[in-house]
Amino acid sequence: MEPVPQTQARLNGQVAIVTGASRGIGRAIALALVAEGANVVINYASSSAAAEDVVNEIMAGGGGDTVGEALAIQADVSKAEQVDALVNKVMEKWHRIDILVNNAGITRDALLLRMKQEDWEAVIDLNLTGVFLCTKAVSKIMLKQRSGRIINITSVAGLMGNPGQANYSAAKAGVIGFTKTVAKELASRGITVNAVAPGFIATDMTSNIKADDIVSYIPLGRFGQPEEVAGMVRFLAADSAAAYITGQVFNVDGGMVMA
Ligand code: NAP
């Protein structure tokens, strides 16, 4: 039998920033982009050991032409000065940025009448303003390069709402509007901007949700895995066919939302 051909490294020499890549979906996205040959920034807020573990895992499997390198950079991406410092560090090391995955996100759940303003603001600051800050800083570089792919991780909560998540749903719906507007603004310079909307994915974020309560709402009958979200991001970032896709939202949700 013929050997199965190895996936071609389609991102050799390219540089990707994945925000919130120390754990969960961001980690899986970083590994998927490295497997395509990209050099990847593992951004994190406080989990330095987890971020270094991701870097070590990547560097241990590295070498050759087909696997990229990784660099961990701490930055709270809800803060403009920290985002600028992050982008400057990447430019000092690799002198270009080809892919931005706005993945970092938090939840601070409470029903509306019990939601504190600080819970509202913390979620909007990271999940929406963080996307704005990173996209603005990186798009300056992509505009000069006249190419780039930006992928924003939103959520089905931004499409259908979810009780207890007024802050999170508003931020994620905001990311969708932001994605469509920026896609129109940057299209003429060869930069695509898309969003991926996961459903329930097995990560720390969902670890206290009882699967039994949820799976009856998921046609495919299970939580998704981080690698299944990463597969969509990998397509949007690396595939030549994705060059003609912009301003779109792709659900990776086991069929929860069918438009
Ligand atoms: P997770 O396992 O909780 O990981 C969150 C990541 O974000 C961590 O790497 C964390 O870094 C980072 N982060 C937190 N605050 C940050 C900040 N201020 N600046 C930079 N990085 C920060 O979450 P996940 O489940 O993988 O979720 C990833 C994305 O997918 C989020 O945008 C989330 O809203 C979205 N999503 C998740 C699901 C799901 O079911 N899991 C569904 C829909 C959408 P530290 O490790 O340093 O804290």
The SSE string, one letter per element, is EHEHEHEHEHHEHHE
Average residue pLDDT: 95
Number of helices: 8
Number of strands: 7
Structural class: alpha/beta
Euclidean distance between termini CA atoms: 42 Å
Bound molecules: NADP nicotinamide-adenine-dinucleotide phosphate
What overall geometry do the principal axes of the alpha carbons give?
Answer: globular
Helix content: 40-55%
Quick one: CATH class?
Answer: Alpha Beta
Main sheet makeup: 7 strands, parallel
SSE inventory with pairings:
Blueprint: E1 15-18, H1 24-35, E2 39-44, H2 48-60, E3 70-74, H3 80-94, E4 99-102, H4 117-145, E5 148-153, H5 157-160, H6 166-186, E6 191-198, H7 211-214, H8 226-238, E7 249-252
Parallel strand pairs: 1-2, 1-4, 2-3, 4-5, 5-6, 6-7
Helix pairs in contact: 1-8, 3-4, 4-6
Bound molecules: NADP nicotinamide-adenine-dinucleotide phosphate.
NADP nicotinamide-adenine-dinucleotide phosphate is lined by residues 19-26, 43-47, 50, 76-78, 103-106, 126, 153, 155, 198, 200-201, 203-206.
Features:
Rossmann fold; 259 residues; alpha/beta; binds NADP nicotinamide-adenine-dinucleotide phosphate; 7-stranded parallel β-sheet
In short:
Helices cover 43% and strands 14% of the residues. It is of the alpha/beta class and 259 residues long.
What does this structure look like?
With 259 residues, the protein is α/β, with parallel strands linked by helices. The protein has eight helices and seven strands.
